[in-house]
Amino acid sequence: MARLRIVELTKVFGTKKVLNNISIEVPEASFTSILGPPGAGKTTLLRIIAGVEPPTSGKIYLDDQDITLLPPKDRNVAMIYQTFALYPHMTVFDNIASPLRARRLSENEIKKKVKDIADFLGISHLLERFPRELSGGEKQRVAVARALVREAEIYLMDEPLTNLDYKLREAARAELKKMCKELKYTMIYATPDPLDALAMSDHVYVLFGGEIVQSGPTRKVYDFPDNIDVARYFSFPAMNFVECTVKHMDDKVAIKMPFTDIIVQKSEIDISEGEYIVGIRPHELKIMEKPSISGVSFKARLRLTYVIGSESIAYADAGETSLAIHVPFIYKIAEPKEVFINLDPMKILIFDKEKRKRVWPR
Amino acid sequence: MKPRNLILLTTLPTLFFLFFWLFYPFIYDIYFSLFYFRLTRPELTRFIGASNYVSILSDPDFWTAAGNTALFIVSCLVIEFFLGLLLALILSFDFKGIGVLRTLYILPILLPPISVGIIWRLMFFPGMSPINYILETLFGFKVDWMGGGIASYLAIILIDAWQWSPFIGLILLAGLLAMPPEPVEAARIDGADPIRVFFHITLPYLKPVILVALILRFLDLIKIFDPIYAIVTGGGSVMETLSVFIYKRGFKVLNIGYGAAVSVIFWIAAFVIANIAVRRFKEYLV
Amino acid sequence: MVEVRLENVTHIYDKRVKAVDNLNIKFIDEKLTALLGPSGCGKTTTLRIIAGLIRPTKGRVFFDDKDVTDLPAEKRNLSMVFQFPVVYTTMKIYDNLAFPLRLKKLSKEEIEKKVKEIAEFLGLKQYLEIKPIGVPADLKQKVALGRALIKETGLLLLDEPLTNIDPKARIELREKILDVKRRLKQTIIYVTHDQAEALTLADFIGIMKDGKIIQLGTPEEIYERPNNTFVAWFVGNPGMNLLDADLVETAHGYFLDISGFRLPIPEDMGKFVRSRISETKLILGIRPEHVDLYTKEVEGGIPGKCLTVEDMGALFIETVRVGEVELKVKTTEWVGEGQPIWIKFPGEKVRIFDKSGKLIYG
Amino acid sequence: MVKKTTILAVVAFIILGIWTFFPLYYAFITAFKSRIEITYWPPTFIPKEFTVHYWIIVWFDRPTLAYYRNTVIASVLSVIISLAFGIPTAYTCARFNFRNRADVLFTILTFRFLPPAAVVIPLYIFMREARLLDTPIGLAFIYGAINLPIVVWVLRSYIIDIPPELEESYMIDGYSRFRAFTDITLPLIKPGLIAVSLLILALSWGEFLFAAVLTTSPMGKTLPVGISEYMGGEWGYEWNKIMAATFYGILPLIIIFLAIRKHLARGLTFGIVR
């Protein structure tokens, strides 16, 4: 196991800067996610770390060794591709044995190691098969086995769950997390799915358009996004944004939104007067039959609800504003109806309208 | 190895090899074309400047050959397209044994053009032509296929169509079989009959594939030589295309300078046309 | 306006693959029925049989008691939207929409009126004059939906219409489909592999597996009372926890013996279950959100340990170990890994299946 | 309606079938006819006397065996040459997105469509100087060159179909790029590689113009040239011999054709039509 340090890495394809001045530190035995939309440069970053793509500038250190110019075979990094990249003309056994053979282990050792890892991942019965005879979940396990069979310094995973159907994904997240914790692997995990990052990783780097826009402990980044774009992307369900005007009234602060006003003590939310954007997470909104005494309640017209598995997202119009509300159970309506929505003012995020940066909480 | 070096190392030898065999001779063509140069009388060789070009461009036979080439290209493309489309359509039916038919019906493609020419020479040979026999029995007339004029022209088109309609058929069939079923199904559910489905859905879908087939055919037709040679040789009447023109004037008569000058003109024309045409394949470069 | 009925429908591909296996199902008039199942379960084949694009190997298809099995697609007078948006790229969008009407030989004025109407409804007005080349998939799918709606048939078939649409655009199209369902009195059959779409849109859901309908019911029935363990696991996010158990009868009442701990159950429930099975082995099912989880010891709580936590933003999914089994629990509060926990199974939420997976209690 | 379509299709099948196979059939049976029978009018469509005499005699009254040998050497060698140059180029053009890639590929492709007639004269002189006239070696180089564009383009299309992740993954496993190519890509494109080899073998086999000009001595000629010469002179009317020789010449091609049938569209369209 090792720690990885990337210093001011830049990659240019033709005239396009796909990665711009990336600096990353991955501590030993930790799970780090690179979160970003498709095309943000995640895969390129992993491929550069693996050594199959040279960077345009910048350095990569494994512990204290500069590996920037080393070919992939000399850097002992393992990678799992989104497509799993199993060699179609080799059996599962030969696929898993491939990195061991590259290291010229004896056939007996290879047999033993492959068998051990296959037992560990529950794929021993598949060793004689070819990749085309495997289901999606089995392929993923074989790809994981091929990476884990050797003790690499760093494990890279490029969206290994994207190509699985949702039933397999929900099981795979917990398993993957557990495995990395138990074996104390250093893991870098690229994903476009905020839930993947949230559910599994210790640290997250948010990558937009080839630049890191925010990084830190995962839940901290989730709770306190630096700007609107991170807040919009790294939230599930997607955050609501409402324009507002802030006015000071004596010792109180009034946050005027189109459909309701939030009035709090200056000691509670301390921001200057002006134009802002409020971010409200869908699960901080509650649907009520009657207005509530705590927090802020306002009227809205519930337009439709969308059931996601065991939970639901309701869409309501408060005046001209459409709001998404997370409901932690199955909730359906036959016809649109009038309801009250309750909001806890202490749970909102406030962003500067011009700079789009977070101003509250500080 | 750095990618840059790898790229140079793998592409330069290929380009060099191609240039050596196929471009370098062209430079020589240019050189020879400026001389009076007969292989049989090397002692008469002398520099004559552009005279070869002047005499070519004022030679009506050259213009006839160029015109013939153009005429062949157009007629062959039209006939082969329709025959090929028909072939592709019937071969796209799905029933037991269609695989065998799909193979058999495109068999002529890979036969050497010269062998095809010879086989057809037999079909057309005066005094023993089975085609003439059939024509005579059914319609009461005979054609002198190898006697020159319009009949020979037709004969050569027939030969080319026989060999290459299956080529267009093969490509269009590949296009038809690769066509996703949904658009046709959607149109059927919309209530369209098979003919409307064909013109509104199938044909527009095939357009890019048709274009590829016709461009490739067109570029090959520029070079047309073998079937004409087969018909013309040993006594057939003259129906010259540019390739045949070079062969006869330059080589058979061994007037190298003159032939080289025709070659230069032909080469440049072919290069320009081919380069423009193949760049239509840009979208397939990925 | 059309009631669709399949009688003993079987379809076999290439003489080997049984895609649909002796299917008997009635699609209720003017309702939206979703066929939900994993890939390869035969749902799309079933839909294509109804459309008349495939002739079933065996069995009959009835529209309102009229046998249409031998009728080709173009004579069945129905409309269909495909998974891959089908537009006619050679025609302008206006002509795309007008295409089915022209085939019906409607007058020019009538066609224009209807096209305008549909374009208005689907928000296609500004696109009518362009050809649908290089436009986004959701716009194409709207055109396809428009072409399906403009014919005003009594039967609308939708084959995974949202699967290939970008997630953001999906929300809008989903709303349109809900609108269609509310406004037009059509029988709609909706094939999907996405439980969220089925639970949201459908009046009835038919769960398919291996060419058979396993359960047909309202979304509530499917979710609350899955009649077998496959449905219980397949629907829900994550699916239902399924634990092997042994029914034990003692002087103190009934227990479920689950490896490592015992769960007391009410007398009447025990008796009922006892009367329905011949042996004592059974499967206990409970949804992750229905398990009560405590971080302090409670009366009747079963002690255990939290193994991993997946942060889902609004909720947490905890994998906990009690006795020798692992199960998933959904919580709103974060519980750290390795922490001791106590869980309770609320009696009314427990489902009991026999060893073969059939629901016997709940 | 359905019936009408079926009848039309059957009629089209029959007409196109006659059009395609009658010349082949007639040429084939002509090789079995006697010397006199070929001159019969009306011509016979089934030989009256059936003789295999001419199938044997063609091997002896002309150096047909030498023709065969020359053809085999020239075409096999041309396959080796064009693969040797073509595989590396196809690989880098498939795997690397370098600046002049399109120009390189189009230049290569353009060479395929240049008329042989336009370069044949200087090549004749060159071959004479290099003492390669009348040898299959000389032809092999030229065939290698004119088929090289096919190899580059077709193999490139097959390599593109193999996801680059497989090679990358193999390199990450601990192998060099060269090993990744030989262990992963090469086995996976094997069907395409075989098909394109056989395709250019067939094209070289039947090439006529270069062979006709660059071989003059009886022992140096290739099959197409040798057979075409049967047509002139005293052999001019001996169609039975000509046809027997012709069929000997095309028999290997029919076998190749059957072997690569599934790859044929792709091979003939430079990998564009899959």
Features:
heterotetramer; A: alpha+beta; Rossmann fold; elongated; C: 362 residues
Kindly describe this structure.
The complex is a heterotetramer of chains A (362), B (286), C (362) and D (274). Chain A is of the alpha+beta class. In chain A, 23% of the residues lie in helices and 37% in strands. Chain A has 2 domains: 4-226, 3-Layer(aba) Sandwich (Rossmann fold); 240-360, OB fold (Dihydrolipoamide Acetyltransferase, E2P), CATH 2.40.50. Chain A has helices at 42-50, 92-102, 107-121, 136-148, 166-183, 194-200, 218-223, 228-233, and strands at 4-13, 16-26, 31-35, 57-62, 65-66, 77-80, 154-158, 187-191, 203-208, 211-217, 240-249, 252-256, 261-265, 274-280, 285-288, 296-308, 311-318, 321-327, 337-343, 349-352, 358-360. Chain A starts with a strand and ends with a strand. The model of chain C has no long low-confidence stretch (mean pLDDT 90). With 274 residues, chain D is mostly helical. Chain D has 2 domains: 19-51, no CATH class; 60-266, MetI-like (MetI-like fold), CATH 1.10.3720. The radius of gyration of chain D is 23 Å and the shape is globular. Chains in contact: A-C, A-D, B-C, B-D. Chain A binds chain C through residues 165-167, 170-171, 173-174, 177-178, 181, 194-195, 198-200, 218-219, 222, 235-237, 281-283, 304-311, 326, 328-330, 332, and chain C through 38-39, 171, 174-175, 178, 193-196, 199-200, 219-220, 223, 233-239, 287-289, 307-308, 310-315, 317, 319, 328, 330, 332, 337.
Class from secondary-structure proportions of chain B: mainly alpha
What would the average pLDDT of chain C be, to the nearest integer?
90
What is the chain-wise order of helices and strands of chain B? HEEHHHHHHHHHHH
Low-confidence stretches of chain C: none
Q: What is this structure, in a nutshell?
A:
With about 290 residues, chain B is mainly α. Chain B contains twelve helices and two strands. The radius of gyration of chain B is 24 Å and the shape is globular.
Element layout with pairings:
The complex is a heterotetramer of chains A (362), B (286), C (362) and D (274).
Chain A: E1 4-13, E2 16-26, E3 31-35, H1 42-50, E4 57-62, E5 65-66, E6 77-80, H2 92-102, H3 107-121, H4 136-148, E7 154-158, H5 166-183, E8 187-191, H6 194-200, E9 203-208, E10 211-217, H7 218-223, H8 228-233, E11 240-249, E12 252-256, E13 261-265, E14 274-280, E15 285-288, E16 296-308, E17 311-318, E18 321-327, E19 337-343, E20 349-352, E21 358-360
Parallel strand pairs in A: 3-8, 3-9, 6-7, 7-8
Antiparallel strand pairs in A: 1-2, 1-4, 4-5, 9-10, 11-12, 11-14, 12-13, 14-20, 15-19, 16-17, 16-19, 17-18, 20-21
Helix pairs in contact in A: 2-3, 2-4, 3-4
Chain C: E1 4-13, E2 17-27, E3 32-36, H1 43-51, E4 58-63, E5 66-67, E6 79-81, H2 93-103, H3 108-122, H4 137-150, E7 155-159, H5 167-183, E8 187-192, H6 195-201, E9 204-209, E10 212-217, H7 219-224, H8 229-234, E11 241-250, E12 253-258, E13 261-265, H9 267-276, E14 281-286, E15 292-294, E16 302-311, E17 316-322, E18 325-331, E19 340-344, E20 351-354, E21 359-361
Parallel strand pairs in C: 3-8, 3-9, 6-7, 7-8
Antiparallel strand pairs in C: 1-2, 1-4, 4-5, 9-10, 11-12, 11-14, 12-13, 14-20, 15-19, 16-17, 16-19, 17-18, 20-21
Chain D: H1 2-30, H2 53-57, H3 64-95, H4 101-112, H5 116-129, H6 136-161, H7 164-173, H8 177-188, H9 190-206, H10 209-214, H11 223-230, H12 239-260, H13 264-268
Helix pairs in contact in D: 1-12, 3-6, 3-9, 3-11, 4-6, 6-9, 7-8, 9-12, 11-12
